[in-house]
Write a structure and sequence with these properties.
Shape of chain B: globular
Largest sheet of chain B: 6 strands, mixed
Low-confidence stretches of chain B: none
Number of helices of chain A: 0
Mean pLDDT of chain B: 93
Distance between the termini of chain B: 41 Å
Order of helices and strands of chain B: EEEEEEEEEEE
Helix content of chain B: under 10%
Radius of gyration of chain A: 13 Å
Low-confidence stretches of chain A: none
Number of helices of chain B: 0
Number of strands of chain A: 11
Helix content of chain A: under 10%
Structural class of chain B: mainly beta
Oligomer: heterodimer
Radius of gyration of chain B: 13 Å
Chain lengths: 114, 112
C-alpha cells in the first residue's frame, strides 16, 4: 500500500463538468507534486507546492487549478477539460523540496474526458 | 533542457537471467538520479536514489550506478524473477524545487 492516497481512483467526466482530484499524505512531508502521465509515456510535472505555497507551475492550462489547503492535502480542481486531458494523474510528496529527497508517489487517478 | 533516454524500450528475458537497463541524460549538472518501478495502472515505486556524489547504490538484487561525466546510469537486476515484470523509469533531478525529468521507461517482461 502506498503512503500517498489519491481519490478517486477513476473519474469519467464531460467537458463541461467541474470535478476535483484529491491527494493526502500523513508522512509530515512539506512538498507535494502533481504529474500527468499519458499512456505509455513518462510522467510530466505539472505543479510543485512547497510549504503549502505554489512554487512551480509548468505552464499548465488554467482549466487545471491546484490547491493546497494544508500540509497533508493537495487538490487539483478540474473545469472545462478537453479529451486530450485524459490521462493518469499522479500525486507525489517529499520531505522538503531539496533536491536530494526522494519523492513518494500515489497510485494515481485515471481520468477520462468524454 | 534536460533530456532523459532509456534503452531498450522493451525487454523480455527468461527467469533467472541477470540484466541491465540503461539510462542516459544530456545535462550532467544533476543533483541525483532515481530509478522507479511502475506496475500497470499503478503509481511509481522508488527503487534507488543515487546522489550526484555517489557512484552506485544497492538494494537487494538491484544495483544502480551513476557516471555523471558521461551522462549515464544503469540498473542491474540480478537473478530476475517473474515478479520483476514492470516498467522501469529513471528520472534525473537537476533543478531547484526537486524537479524530476523522466525517461521513457523500459518495459520488462520476465518469463517463467
Amino acid at each position: 500500500d502506498t503512503e500517498v492516497t489519491q481519490t478517486p481512483k477513476h473519474l469519467v467526466m464531460g467537458m463541461t463538468n467541474k470535478k476535483s482530484l484529491k491527494c493526502e499524505q500523513h508522512m509530515g512531508h512539506r512538498a507535494m507534486y502533481w504529474y500527468k502521465q499519458k499512456a505509455k509515456k513518462p510522467p510530466e510535472l505539472m505543479f510543485v507546492y512547497s510549504y503549502e505555497k505554489l512554487s512551480i507551475n509548468e505552464s499548465v492550462p488554467s482549466r487545471f487549478s491546484p490547491e493546497c489547503p494544508n500540509s497533508s492535502l493537495l487538490n487539483l480542481h478540474l473545469h472545462a477539460l478537453q479529451p486530450e486531458d485524459s490521462a493518469l494523474y499522479l500525486c507525489a510528496s517529499s520531505r522538503g523540496d531539496a533536491n536530494y529527497q526522494p519523492q513518494h508517489f500515489g497510485d494515481g487517478t485515471r481520468l477520462s474526458i468524454l | 533542457k534536460q533530456e532523459v533516454t532509456q534503452i531498450p524500450a522493451a525487454l523480455s528475458v527468461p527467469e533467472g537471467e541477470n540484466l541491465v537497463l540503461n539510462c542516459s541524460f544530456t545535462d550532467s549538472a544533476i543533483y541525483n538520479l532515481q530509478w522507479f518501478r511502475q506496475d500497470p495502472g499503478k503509481g511509481l515505486t522508488s527503487l534507488l536514489l543515487i546522489q550526484s556524489s555517489q557512484r552506485e547504490q544497492t538494494s537487494g538484487r538491484l544495483n544502480a550506478s551513476l557516471d555523471k561525466s558521461s551522462g549515464r546510469s544503469t540498473l542491474y537486476i540480478a537473478a530476475s524473477q517473474p515478479g520483476d515484470s514492470a516498467t522501469y523509469l529513471c528520472a534525473a533531478c537537476g533543478n531547484a524545487g526537486n524537479m524530476l525529468t523522466f525517461g521513457g521507461g523500459t518495459r520488462l517482461m520476465v518469463k517463467p
